[in-house]
Give the backbone structure.
Amino acid sequence: MNAVSYRVSMSRPHSHLFEVVADFPASGDAVTVALPVWTPGSYLVREYARHVQNFEALGPEGQKIPFRRADKRSFVVDAHGRAFRLRYQVYAHELTVRTSHLDGSHGYFNGATLFFYCEALRKHEHRVEIEAPPGWTATSALEREGADFVADDYDELVDSPFEVGPHTALHFLAAGVPHEVVLWGEPQLDEKKLLTDLQKVVEIQSAFFGGLPMKRYVFFIYASDKGRGGLEHRASTALIYPRSGLVSSKGWEDFLTLACHEYFHLWNVKRIIPKALVPFDYSQEAYTQLLWAFEGGTSYYDNLLVRRAGLMSAGRYLARMGETLTTLHTTPGRKTLSLGDASYLSWVKHYRPDENTVNTAISYYLKGEVACLLLDLTIRRLTKDTKSLDDVMRLMWQRWGDGSGVPEDGVEAAAAEVAGQSLKMFFDRAVRGTDELDYSPLQHVGLEVRFRVRESAGDKGGSAPRAKSDDKPRGFLGVLPKGNSAIASVLDGSAAMVAGIYPDDEIVALDGNKVDANGLISRCEEKKPGEKVKVTVFRRERLTEVTVTLAAKPADAVYLARIDRPTEEQKASYRSWLGAHWDDGSDQRPTL
């Protein structure tokens, strides 16, 4: 089969324009070429075609040939049964892992943002040549043949981002497989520690699944002034992380969980994939109820495997889980949207948050992580610690790791098979329902969920109350700030909502005294529940005063505590799950 070939140039980096030439072999008379509207792994229609400009089609002799727009993302080229060439530019000035970015320092791109494809040629080989500015080097997980990067088909091409810049790649070997690390943004970090810790993350996952599923892997790491995120690919990942966060111990720990998360996707999502996504339809949304298992499950393991790799203490693991539970319990939307529906509606919910999202939605990453924790402990309890969620993951890898796709009931069926009994009641409550989660499985490892009142605006939960904490009732307004001067969201049923405070209200004063957003919240907490306060705001440029009767601040900060008088069986289960001795707190890696 003839290959589809692309040449990507960036002759004027300051223009933020990638220049693309695409050569298509003969495939018909009127050939439709199109750009994807979304990137696999990021479930939002992003309309990449909006950045395309100066599009033209050329015949074999270089003459311009007619074409017409078919829709927002597609062109029909009058090829008359012959090969043809496309020439166009793509504007790229959005530094995220899901998009593309070009400036004087580098060029980064996801294939979905740059490469037009033809459905009839989608399974053909696709090749890319990079014309880089002097001193710049191109890196991708794709194999190279001479000057070309080679993908077996369009799907592999789209799943293989490129970084082009003046970088020098770092290298390490893990589980017998070469790995590369490309850094951008001048991160201040210990490169030796970076490679050593990433190697541990890789090897713990290789041991988990019994080997790595690729021949080479690339970490693209972008240090930024803000933003945290990652996007998984079949043999690489792009990670963006705040530069300042890389220099603290907690920030480094968090960065490692991000890297671990995206690496775990090598199996969970990239190869064990919901059947609803097979094959990828780049033209529209693809719906599945299973993202909670693929993203939430990966979130569960990103912390747990960093813990197992010896890069996080058991105490820190429990604290981080408590912070996750706190976020869950400070989100009213958990009572409105089920975990399955949160997965299904990711296209319009998770990736399109607004001022009311906190009241109407729940993150399938967040609640999915907690549900997977409880599922793991449920299986361990039912099987007397002979089986766990690890075995469910390995069963899914064995059964669906060929990319054929997990059916919508596949995760529940696999979990029931490992547990040796139906888990319908668990899934009805945790995945299909909106009732509060049942935390009793934590008893199996001698833990319980406890609640307390948050002690400050920055209190993320995860820890017990301070010894001298003031336990007097506190007033509660029920708003989330936007920056330092406005209201971002008003919590459902809160005193603020009842009184008539709105999102986007600009904060002016409390009881006649000037306050900012944090001052408004903290001063209300200094008052007693039932007290009346006057909140002055600008609303659509009009000064408005709202009288609010404060509610009681809820006990929604969560932490995991050890139960009193645990049995020896609970201590052993704790050690089996978390790899730490109950009594002395020392860490011990569990057997995989």
In short: The chain has a mean pLDDT of 96. The longest strand covers residues 17-24.
